Automatic annotation (TrEMBL):
Annotated Low complexity bias: 34-61
An annotated GO BP: methylation
Segments traversing the membrane: none
GO molecular function ontology, one term from the record: methyltransferase activity
UniProt-annotated stretches for the region Disordered: 27-87
Annotated Gene3D superfamilies: paralog of FGE (formylglycine-generating enzyme), Vaccinia Virus protein VP39
Domain DinB-like: 446-567
Name of the featured protein: Uncharacterized protein
InterPro entries: CTDL_fold, DinB-like, EgtD_Methyltrsf_superfamily, MeTrfase_dom, SAM-dependent_MTases_sf, SAM_MeTrfase_EasF-type_put, SUMF_dom, SUMF_sf
Residue ranges of every copy of the Sulfatase-modifying factor enzyme-like domain listed in the record: 644-891
Length: 898
């Protein structure tokens, strides 16, 4: 059972629903619609609806305008109740749907009655009564979430948005959201979509008055509102609401098709809030649809009376049926039926008096409603398959019901493909991300030669480096010429990573030209190299997928993904970066010339997870994996396509290394607020070497006279500085040396031996979680968020009040948000003499076995899932390198140190 009165049609017409503006009198509305053969579009509706026309700009709407309909609801005439002149539901032939469902083409098929028959005016009133019943937990728990988290939720809805609710119902729950939007003083244009005109107008009136939120109704169907939503331009942000687990009316395949159809209609940055009931205890679900007062039974049986109204004849007698319901555990759905009490015949007479006879057998069941339930994993898979990015999930206290906020993003990185060679779709999405960063966030031409990190090349270099690296590797593997201009290979093939303390010391790298090529020539070269790539992928006869070619494609894909992250942490350091277009943030930005006076935000203290490696599976204790490039020379195509790839430093699989002793690890990384306490306690706020470069200080903008907490504006992001009142609860991004000093200070304060984890310890923790805790789609990597917040699972689970409270591996935050520093120097997993250097990229790892680089594990918010989810992946940076998206968590080992 759901709040929606509509079942989707996945081939939408071009017509849009009728806009119901309560400022239009009932008489005028009926006159306007009495000869209505199809719904009006926003452009053709009454002039009094202009304020709600998709042709007008939201930015031009004055939320306090006296012409707002919220201030003139009382002027509307009486409702349409008992008025037979009200036009029928637009675009819906319920008569045909009823008769075709009762006369299936296959005589052995189950007879059905459309769910929409349940929602006449009386049905809606009965359904509203159901939502107040104790047994019907869905409504109560959705209300709990909205009352508790409504303010947080609406932060994700941009100002000047259009909000469209699919299947609005009584609007009791919606009112909670609208009030939250009103408290945030957001100018919102809200449309409630429903089929039943009488109840829609009543529900709209029940909302009361708002200053900033303006309301209107949409009388129509799901498929009609598709055209309505698409009529808004790309500059108008939109949020859809689909509450009450209305998705339950659809089977798994229908739900996927329906959500995918709406994704095509939405613009990048648009949101969708979806309520979903879980596969809960069967007894609880059964009681939810079989209440002790019999309200649900009356609701279902009233549908039979409505059928007679729709068909305009005494077609069906409800006394010949009973309500029959069951929960199908295997399928995961509640099923509602009409069960025939005695054998009889239904007779329908069409306008020509021709009869249609429908025989019914005793105890035969006729389906009227399915209510599908979704496990967390099914929901995660659904959103991944429809390429929606989940940016928020709010769960009721009983863990039975969720609200999911999903967004259409400019690109979508799915979880790791089971095949080691990236697919064409993966390449396309990676190219979208690269182009967003290089062609939009980097302003042309003013930023192209900018070097926000002095140790790196200017931005322009990376625009040429990525296609040159790909082109060079393809040419070597295929024994073909380089793409012209071939001299690009000389200046773009390899970047730099100089010694932080002495930048004159650097590995072999490409020649730095006196004058860089024009950006147009670089982008033209990029496009031709991409075309070359897809020619290779699309011509298996000319380019058979050998293991060597597959490795080249794997390596160049991950290389581009890693440099995407490098560019992002460079852009964070530039004051000139443009934020990603059409993606809003759930916070209020501060000006760069003023500091935040609010106190830093907090999360509960990190809990400690006990880890005893001796009790864990040997696969969790292993390091690396087997992937020798010698295998590339074998002509075994199956092996080439099925085996895992990795970089040279991940090979071989180490299973014989002694496991570490038992230890405890923090459930999350140290936050900005916690690091700030350390700097204050040690009087290091004046020491530039101790302050993370991820923070922005007033001294970067003006000449300081003193340095205090108030001098910290906040944390640098691609959106600009975010005050500590918001970012205080985020993990702190800092260097390995800064993290080590924090650990030493806290050890003294706590009287315990605390430190950074070893590579082996952290690898065990992350593998343990990956093998025991299912992904929930909220892990903060792959650009799910564009800032280093904790993943939401950890935020909701962090209810401990002391740092000594035990936790389980499911409470572990990450990987994601920020990479995790370790105290392990970057060296081969085996003795250096046994290390097998990559033949394709000899200097990738070996140039950095210098005891200055430390192993970094996990992922950041800007890490591609192919990297973030491969537990053998080893990252590394110089211990004193401060710019990388890396944080840290501590371990407690007793007396043993790193």
């Amino acid at each position: 059972m759901v709040t929606s009165t509509m079942h989707p049609v996945l081939n939408p017409p071009t017509i849009t629903p009728v806009i119901i503006d309560l400022r239009v009198s009932t008489k005028d509305f009926k006159k306007q619609n009495s000869q209505h053969s199809r719904p009006t579009s926003p452009e053709s509706s009454s002039s009094s609806q202009d304020e709600f026309s998709t042709q007008s700009s939201l930015a031009d709407t004055d939320s306090a305008d006296s012409d707002s309909m919220n201030g003139s609801i009382e002027t509307a005439d009486s409702d349409f109740d008992n008025d037979e002149s009200v036009p029928p539901v637009p675009g819906v032939d319920l008569q045909k749907m009823i008769l075709s469902g009762l006369c299936p083409s296959d005589p052995t098929a189950l007879k059905t009655i459309p769910t929409m028959v349940l929602y006449d005016d009386l049905g809606l009133q009965l359904y509203d009564e159901i939502t107040y019943l104790e047994e019907y937990y869905l409504a109560q728990e959705e209300i709990e979430i909205l009352e508790r988290d409504g303010d947080k939720l609406v932060e994700h809805i941009p100002d000047n948005s259009v909000v469209v609710e699919l299947g609005a119902g009584s609007l009791r729950k919606t009112a909670l959201l609208l009030k939250a939007l009103e408290r945030k003083r957001k100018n919102i244009r809200y449309y409630a979509l429903d089929l039943m005109l009488n109840e829609l107008t009543k529900s709209l009136k029940s909302l009361g008055q708002f200053n900033n939120v303006k309301t209107a109704g949409l009388w129509g169907t799901y498929e009609q509102v598709l055209a309505f939503v698409s009529s808004f331009g790309p500059d108008v942000p939109k949020t859809l609401l689909w509450l009450g687990s209305s998705i339950g009316n659809l089977c798994r395949e229908e739900a996927m098709d329906f959500i995918a159809s709406y994704r095509k209609t939405l613009n990048v940055g648009d949101n969708w809030l979806i309520g979903i009931d879980r596969r809960n205890d069967p007894q609880a679900i059964t009681l939810a649809y079989n209440d002790s007062k019999g309200v649900t039974s009356n609701f279902i049986m009233n549908g039979l009376d409505h059928i007679n109204t729709i068909l305009q004849q005494d077609f069906i007698n409800r006394n010949n049926f009973r309500y029959f319901a069951r929960y199908n555990v295997e399928v995961g759905r509640h099923e509602a039926y009409y069960q025939v009490k005695r054998a009889h015949e239904l007779v329908y007479r069409d306008p020509s008096q021709k009869e249609i006879r429908i025989p019914l057998a005793k105890d035969e069941i006729i389906n009227v409603e399915y209510s599908y339930k979704w496990s967390p994993q099914e929901t995660t898979d659904l959103l991944a398959q429809t390429e929606f990015t989940r940016i928020g999930q709010w769960t009721c206290s009983s863990q039975r019901y969720d609200l999911h906020l999903v967004r259409k993003t400019p690109f979508f990185f799915n979880s790791t493909d089971p095949m080691p060679c990236p697919t064409q779709d993966e390449w396309r999405e990676l190219h979208k991300s690269w182009d967003l960063v290089t062609m939009h966030m980097i302003q042309h031409p003013s930023m192209l030669l900018e070097k926000p990190i002095a140790l790196r090349h200017p931005f322009l270099f990376y625009l040429g480096h990525i296609p040159v690296f790909l082109d060079t590797q393809l040419s070597r593997a295929l024994n073909e010429k380089l793409t012209e201009p071939s001299y690009f290979n000389v200046i773009f093939e390899r970047g730099i990573d100089p010694n932080v303390d002495d930048p004159t010391q650097c590995h072999t790298h490409s020649v730095v030209p006196d004058i860089w090529p024009e950006v147009d020539s670089i982008t033209n070269f990029r496009d031709r190299v991409r075309a070359r790539l897809f020619n290779v992928l699309n011509d298996p006869e000319r380019y058979p997928m050998t293991r060597r070619l597959a490795r080249v494609l794997f390596m160049t894909f991950e290389h581009e993904a890693m440099h995407l992250e490098t560019l992002i942490y460079m852009l964070v350091q530039s004051p000139n970066t443009l934020p990603p277009s059409s993606l809003t943030v759930p916070w209020t930005m501060v000006g760069s010339s003023s500091s935040s006076s609010s106190s830093p935000s907090w999360v509960p203290p990190a809990s400690w997870i006990s880890v005893d490696p001796s009790t864990l599976d040997k696969s969790i204790l292993s390091l690396g994996h087997n992937d020798s490039e010698v295998q590339d020379l074998l002509e075994n195509k199956k092996y080439a396509l099925d085996s895992e790839f990795g970089w040279d430093n991940e090979n071989p699989l180490i299973t014989c290394k002694s496991p570490p002793s038992a230890f405890k690890v923090q459930s999350r990384q140290v936050t900005n607020s916690e690091y700030l306490i350390y700097l204050e306690a040690t009087a290091q706020l004046k020491d530039k070497n101790c302050i993370p470069v991820s923070w922005i200080m007033i001294q970067e903008l003006v000449t300081p006279t003193t340095t205090t907490v108030e001098d910290i504006i906040g944390v640098k992001t691609v959106y600009g500085p975010v005050p500590l009142s918001i970012s205080g609860e985020w993990p702190v991004s800092c260097s390995n040396i800064q993290a080590t000093h924090y650990a030493a200070w806290l050890s003294k304060q706590a009287g315990q031996t605390l430190g950074l984890p070893t590579e082996h310890e952290l690898s065990i923790v992350f593998k343990w979680k990956q093998m025991t805790v299912p992904k929930n789609g909220l892990e903060n990597y792959g650009f799910r968020q564009w800032h280093p917040c904790l993943d939401q699972r950890n935020q909701s689970a962090s209810t401990t009040t002391t740092t000594t409270t035990a936790a389980t591996i499911s409470d572990l935050s990450g990987p994601g948000g920020l990479w995790d520093w370790t105290c392990t120097p970057f060296t081969p997993l085996v003795d250096k003499k046994e290390f097998e250097t990559s033949r394709l990229y000899p200097g990738y790892s070996s140039d950095f076995f210098d005891e200055k680089h430390m192993v970094v594990l996990g992922a950041s918010w800007a890490t591609h899932p192919r990297i973030a989810e491969r537990r053998s992946f080893r990252n590394w940076y110089q211990a004193n390198y401060p710019f990388v998206f890396a944080g840290f968590r501590l371990v407690q080992r007793g007396a043993r140190k790193c």
